[in-house]
Design a protein that fits this description.
Helix content: under 10%
Number of domains: 1
CATH topology: Immunoglobulin-like
Radius of gyration: 18 Å
Number of strands: 12
Mean pLDDT: 77
Low-confidence stretches: 1-44
Largest sheet: 9 strands, mixed
Shape: globular
Distance between the termini: 13 Å
Length: 209
């Protein structure tokens, strides 16, 4: 493992958001990061998943990412995108800041809002990724793609707890008249970071899984 990173068992949350936007398509495009737009039928049958991945390209069972370290720390990990259908699926992937809502649930910033803390430090800018279809021979396996990312904690970061989400988005549109209905289906995995103590740039970042 790189940079002295250590993994132990822990727990974390998974986020799932579905947003229905009724607006002209041009306005909806301004309200979220660049994503792929497709017809709502038959694409609504598509099923995808996301989660922490092993280096050899498998979901490893971690329910999310939990990191503990000091300002100036760096850690590398990877997130896996899964396609359970028999057709390739193109999605948008990005990282953004997370927070606890008024109801106590975990949530992430709207797509149009730029992350300022952990979501920014993860450094996954909006990108379109094509997940291959599942295979049927010699055995049935979902399509899979691994996306590496790097968390760079600023040396000026203050001690405390920070939250983010790595979000996968698939938008569909249905235009049976005005206004256009845009459905943004988002699913993601939670990232938690605890920054410890005084600044020590040489300290290694400890990763919990």
């Amino acid at each position: 493992m790189n940079n002295g990173v250590r993994r132990v068992l822990a727990t974390a949350g998974v986020l799932c958001v579905a947003t229905l936007t009724c607006a002209p398509l041009s306005q909806a495009a301004q309200a979220a990061p660049p994503v792929v737009t497709a017809n709502s039928s038959p694409d609504t049958t598509r099923t995808v998943g996301i989660g922490p991945s092993t280096k050899d390209g498998r979901l490893d069972g971690r329910p999310g990412f939990i990191f503990v370290g000091r300002p100036g720390s760096i850690v590398r990990d990877q997130v896996g995108l899964v396609n359970y259908t028999d057709k390739p699926v193109s999605v948008s992937l990005y990282s953004t800041d997370g927070f606890t809502s008024a109801t106590g649930a975990f949530d992430v910033l709207p797509g149009a809002d730029k992350p300022q803390q952990l979501g920014k430090w993860i450094g996954l800018k909006p990108q379109v990724i094509k997940i291959p279809a599942r295979t049927t021979s010699p055995i049935v396996e979902p399509g899979f793609i691994k996306v590496p990312f790097v968390v760079r904690v600023p040396s000026s970061a203050k001690p405390g707890d920070f939250a983010a989400g790595i979000v996968m988005s698939l938008r569909t549109k249905k235009s049976s008249g005005a206004p256009t209905v845009v459905v943004d289906r988002r699913v993601g995995t939670r990232v938690s970071l605890r920054i410890l103590g005084a600044v020590n740039p040489s300290a290694a970042l400890t990763q919990l899984s």
